[in-house]
Every structure is written in C-alpha cells, then in structure tokens.
Amino acid sequence: MYPHSELCNNDALMADANLMEKIISLAKRRGFVFPGSEIYGGLAGTFDYGPLGVVLKENVERLWLQMFRDDRDDMYGVDATILMNPKVWEASGHVSGFSDPLVECEKCKKRFRPDHLDDPKKCPECEGTLGEVRQFNMMFKTQVGATADESSVVYLRPETAGGIFTNFKNVVDSLHPKLPFGIAQIGKAFRNEIAPRDFIFRLRELSQMEVEYFVKPTDWEQAFEEWRKMMHLFAEAVGLPQGMVHELEVSDGDRAHYSKRTIDFEFDYPFGRKELWGLAYRTDFDLSAHAGASSTELTYLDEETKEKFVPHVIEPSLGVDRTILAILASAYREDDMGGEVRTYLALAPKIAPVKAMVSPLLKNKPELVAKAREVRAELRKIHPGIAWDDNGNIGKRYRRQDEIGTPFCITIDFDTLGEHSELADTVTLRHRDTGEQERLTIPEVAERISSAIQ
Predict the structure, then answer these.
(1) Is residue 402 part of a domain?
(2) How many domains does the structure of the chain reveal?
(3) By residue range, what is the domain housing residue 383?
(4) pTM to 2 decimals?
(5) Structural domain includes residue 112
(6) CA 230, CA 236: separation in Å to the nearest integer?
(7) 13, 105, 445, 450: which has the fewest Cβ within 10 Å?
(8) Are strands 99-104 and 111-112 parallel, antiparallel or unpaired?
(9) What is the CATH classification number for the domain harbouring 422?
C-alpha cells in the first residue's frame, strides 16, 4: 500500500482520511495511550499513557532535558507546585484574560468555540441557532483548606511558566548565575477547554516542557535566534521530518499581550496544520508584573557594570502531548510485504520505547531459550529497553515489534549454538523499516544498537 522506502510525509498516507483513526486504534491496542476513565464512559479531554506510552513520553522528556538543560552550562531546573497563591495568576493576567470565545446553542444548549465552527451561527449538532459570543475563562478553580468561600479559592495552574517566574529570585539568590541564564521545567498544566478534540492534541490536562531564558534587554534577538535553532534540532532528534514542521511568524494583532515577537512552530497533523510549539519574546512583562503585585524586587545586578535591571525573557514552550501525537503521526507506516499489509512505527531509536527484542527461534528448545536469555542480559548492559518475546511464531513476533516501533529484532537459532561452526555465536539481526536481516556476532549487534540510540 505505502512503500516503506518513501518518506513519512508520504502524500498517499497523509491523505488517508482514516489515518487518525488508525493511529488512535494502534495507540490503544499496543499500550501507548488509553481513554481516561474508560470503564466509566470516559471524560472528555483526558487520556492515560499506557505502558509503552509512558516510556515514549519519558524518552521524549529525557531528550528535552538533555538538550535544553543538561548539556548547557547556563540552565537550571525547578519543579514548582501546581497549586499556587491565586495572586500569581492575577498578576500574570490569567484571572482576567485567560479565556476563549464561547457560543451556546439556543436549542440543545451545547457549547462550542465559534472559531472552530464552519458556520458560527449554526449548531453543528442540531442545526439550531447559536447565541452571542462571550468569553469563557479556562482556568480550573478549587478550594484549599476547610472553608469553601472566596478566600479559599485557588487555581490549577494554566501554564508552568508561573512557577518559574516566582522562583527567579530564589535561583538568583541561591546560585548567583550570570546572564544570560535559563530556568527549565517539565510539568502539568490544566485548561478547561470548551471543546477538547483531536485525541491528545487538545486536552484539559496536559504536560509542558518550558524554558524561561533571561537576557539583557539588548541581547534578546540573538537569544531568540539561538532558541529557534534549538527547537529545530529537537524536532530532528525526536524524528519529526523537516518538511512537516513549519514556522509561522505571529502578527501583532494575534500575539499574546506580553509578547513582542512570537513564532508558532506548526506541524502537519492528519487533521491539518496546527500549532506544535511556541517561541516567544516576553520582554520584562512577567518579572515586572510579579514585582509590582508582590512588592518584591525582581531585578538582576550585573557585577561588572553594577547596573541593576529587570531581565527580558525568551520562552521556548513545547507541549509534550502534541509532540507525542506528532511523533506517532509522522512515524506511522503501512506497506505490502509479500502480499500482507504490514503496519509499523518508524520511531527514532533514541525515543523508541523498546530498543530491541531478543527471541529464541523456538521456545520449546531449552538450549535456545538459555542462549537467548544470555544474549538479552548482555545487551541490557547497553540499555534496559531490550524486550523478550517467545510468543507465537517468529513472523508474528516481528509484526508485534514493528507495530510498537522496535528498531531491531534479534533471533537466536541453532546456528548461534554452533550447528554450523562458522556461524557459532552469531545471531540474526532484523531491521524494522526494511525487514532486511543480517548475520552478526553478538558484539557487533551491541555496537549497532549502541550507535543507533546515541
């Protein structure tokens, strides 16, 4: 159907109207993503990561931490709380302005975002008349303590950036970093979306990978360009094809009020080109706003010039869930191998949940099983993500591993045991994308795997 030699933005595959349904089906069938609370009928806008999805997510986050924080000398991490003093969100403008347009059907009373409708005057459910547009604040409210009144109201954070800005002074006072420097965080954010949709693209509970990078006011353009390049490098590292990631320079009227420049990184999802990540120049808005609201000085003292000023901020913001969906969409493949349609995920080995699968040719031969166990134990010294599979025939094992994106399958057979002396201690290494097989020694296999996941 779709030749495996073609690129993942294959026109025939991306034009498949059922592609999203296929991705969602595979994600559930193979343990990547499950509907939230499914046995009770689910809850709109919530999804759970399954056993393989958890590892994929962790691999993406670990790679982000490595590239955006750990490999740099100018980056620091925090893990701020989800519940914060509500004054944080008043100062940032979220209480008064974090809203989306909403319309309600006069007939069926269902609510929609008018900017998501083909006809903003007609209900897509019952064709009734939609009312006037009004603004809907998307923050989740809750109470802390035993008293349920206005004094106990707090919010589930709508973004992770708030906890970074409120910890700016703590990081400066404790570590005395020199400008420019950044603070990085991965964490949950919550948005009461009017109409969550498109699988894990638009959620009510989501994960963000964010950096607030503090610079001198005169240096923002250079820093902005550096982070723009870094985001493209990350897209390449997680396996997103260059041709499917696009930059959109956001115009003055469409930018957030705090931003003087914003680039939206968009991706060609099966349902259209939509925002994947964002890069914003937030000026000194956040630190100045929190300084004024908290009566706390949030400035930086340049030890060389003795100048004291409020740093400006560059913010690369990456949604974890949208990244996972982009990875699944770009990695999904179908091809015809010997008259049988094969489905597989061409995941980058760095982020694939399983790096390789080791299997005895026959599971009822103790000598094969013992040798396969020995090989697996040796390969796990390289990486723990080496799976074991002895269920069914070898072809079925290959197909299962293909569907979860395992780059390599390693089969232990009688030649490994020395049936033909020249092949003793060699194994069959099968490559996921092509289905090709080669005979290698165990050290050579270890080198192949190690090289692929670097």
Answers:
(1) yes
(2) 2
(3) 354-452
(4) 0.90
(5) no
(6) 10
(7) 450
(8) antiparallel
(9) 3.40.50.800
